[in-house]
Amino acid sequence: MRRLMTGRPGAGAWPLGAVAVAALCLLPVAAVLWLALFPAENIWPHLIATTLPGYVGNTLILLAGVGVSTLLTGVTAARLVTAFDFPLRKLLEWLLLLPLAMPGYVIAYLYTDLLEFAGPVQHALRAVFGWRLAGDYWFPEVRSMGGAIMLLGVVLYPYVYLLARASFLEQSSYLPDVSRLLGRGPVATFFYVELPIARPAIAVGVALALMETLNDFGTVDFFSVQTLTAGLYDVWLNMGNLGGGAQIGAVMLTFAALLISLEYIGRRRRRFYQSATRFGGRPRQRLRGRNGWAATAVCAAPVLFGFGIPALLLVSHALDHLPAAWTPRFRGYALNSLWVSGTASVSAVALAVVVAYARRLRRTTVMAAIARAASLGYAVPGAVLAVGVIVPLAAFDNAVDAFLRARFGVGSGLILSGTSFAVIAACTIRFLAVSIGAVESSFSKVSDSLDMAARTLGHGAGRTLRRFHLPLIRGGLLTAALIVFVDCMKELPATLILRPFNFETLATHVYHFASDELIERSAPGALFIVAAGLIPVIILSRTIDTAARLDSPAAPGPGPVAPGPRPVAPPGTVTSTAAPPAAPAP
Q1: How far are the Cα atoms of 207, 261, 269, 384 from residue 379, in angstroms, in the given order?
Q2: CA–CA separation, 151 and 305 (whole Å)
Q3: How many CA atoms lie within 13 A of 344 on its CB side?
Q4: DSSP string covering 338-353
Q5: Is 158 a domain residue?
Q6: 3-class DSSP state for residue 19?
Q7: pTM higher than the cut 0.90
Q8: Torsions phi, psi for 241 (to 5 deg)
Q9: Residues linked to residue 84 through DSSP beta bridges, in sequence order
């Protein structure tokens, strides 16, 4: 504790507040592990003998497939848009981020409706070639492991593309020249020089994509792919065994820990330093003719399949069904989504300010570990987090109810676990890492001399934060709140499990209609979710472009370059190549 409290004077209770936030975030994980070790009914031997090996095997196959898919697509697209100039490059540079706004379960529903036997694609093929039955021709099965890998890969590759592109842009323009002087051609230079330098950022992007894959429930459930997430849902809710669900959740936590460890192993002892002229305005190689249009096609393909076709289908279905869908009940679902997402975003930003400000005041190893512990929820799949949240909340509700019955003869019922508070708490814990990363990035731009001047004027830590820091970092706070808001709008596993009775959000509304094969009726809700997701994608693209221009040497011209916003990196990453980026928030 003494080491925790060492640092700048006048910190007050901020470090203790950060400890409390970290403890709240660790509580669900501790609850899952405790329930897994001491279940009311131990079905672990039964799980091992029956379904658990299948869950683990399917999860490994899905993770491996999505990892390879996102790696190849993201790195290839990032390399093309940063090193070459070809038709539509500037447009595709930000369009490649758009699939990030498309939830995986939404794209799964749409492509199934498009490609199934009764869908328009196979119907057109039968009309053209005269086929009548499914046995007359072969067509790949969409609702399969391969379909899940392809569809999740096409919406999650932007994690790799985003970080790989930023890393390639930060590399010195002198690297290719030096490599050529040493006898290496362009291809060898990329694989032996540029790609290893970008490897830490790429590893973080792949790890983030795999964590989202591990968290996915809607896609694997709709495709009947029995992964650990689907198994947890089945054992807990369908079989009524919370202890068994917690045991599967413990296995998922092990998977998340392995992902973080593999990412760390992939970048440890790898540090790349660049000189002050690291951003040298590196020229792009012009691709002409067929080569240029081939590069355009390669970059346009993931945008088309990951966003273009699904967006057109959503708009078409929504226009046909919006008048019938726009009912008071649908508006209630939208308000529920806004309530949960808005409250969770405000809560996440407020807690992130406590953690980030405490770390600013106490720059110690212990405080860094506390901030990292507060970011743990991002690596915990939503279904596992739901188990961890419901256990302590139910224990609290039962304790209060027992006390009131013993003292006053009245019961309190469900206070927290049976309300939207449980959903808000889960979303806050899960996406707190996003807020902490954005707030810390904003705090890093505020000079330490401001704190010193405030202390000289007699201001304490709290008053300094209110009067000086918050007005200066309000842009970062709004960005963090917006990103958390959109993530909460898309969150399905935790919302589906923790929502109260007769409480539906747009995500659960879309899931229920799609599960009943009513894809068209789910389109208006899905379109609302996708439209909300476009906002942070546009912000990310604009801030990255702004940062690249500001970090490049100023072009000759009158006046200095005006300051602008810096990009908000995904949780657990850094924006400089002076040191390897940290692992994604565990």
Answers
A1: 10, 12, 23, 10
A2: 9
A3: 32
A4: HHHHHHHHHHHHHHHH
A5: yes
A6: helix
A7: no
A8: -115, 100
A9: 285
Dig out the tokens for 191 from the structure: 């694989």
Distance (Å, rounded) from C-alpha 203 to C-alpha 210? 11
Q: For position 552, what pLDDT does the model report?
A: 52
CA angle 10–12–16, rounded 5-degree value = 140
By the 8 A CB rule, do 108 and 316 touch? no
Q: How far apart are CA 529 and CA 506, in angstroms?
A: 7
Query: What range defines the domain where residue 128 resides?
Result: 28-269+280-550
395, two tokens: 């224990």
Euclidean distance between CA atoms 79 and 165, whole angstroms: 7
Find the DSSP H helices in 505-581.
Answer: 506-515, 519-551
Within 13 Å and on the Cβ side, how many CA atoms surround 420?
Answer: 16
Domain total for the chain? 1
Inside any domain, residue 583? no
Spatial separation of the C-alpha atoms in residues 316 and 291, rounded to whole Å: 34
- The CA-CA-CA angle for residues 528, 534, 537, to 5°, reads 155
End-to-end CA distance of the chain: 23
Q: Hey, what amino acid is at 45?
A: P
Tokens 């109810």 belong to residue? 401
For residue 343, give the CATH number of its domain: 1.10.3720.10
Residue 14 in any domain: the answer is no
For residue range 100-109, list pLDDT tens digits in order: 888 888 898 8
The number of C-alpha atoms within 13 Å of 267 and in the hemisphere containing its C-beta is 27
Residue closest to 382 by CA, chosen among 437, 435, 429, 433: 429
Q: Does residue 205 sit within a domain?
A: yes
Give the integer Cα–Cα distance in Å for 314 and 538: 20
Per residue in 376-407, pLDDT (tens digit) is 888 888 888 888 998 899 889 889 988 888 88
Cα–Cα distance, 375 to 388 (Å, whole number):
15
Q: What angle separates helix 195-215 from helix 242-267, to the nearest 10 degrees?
A: 180
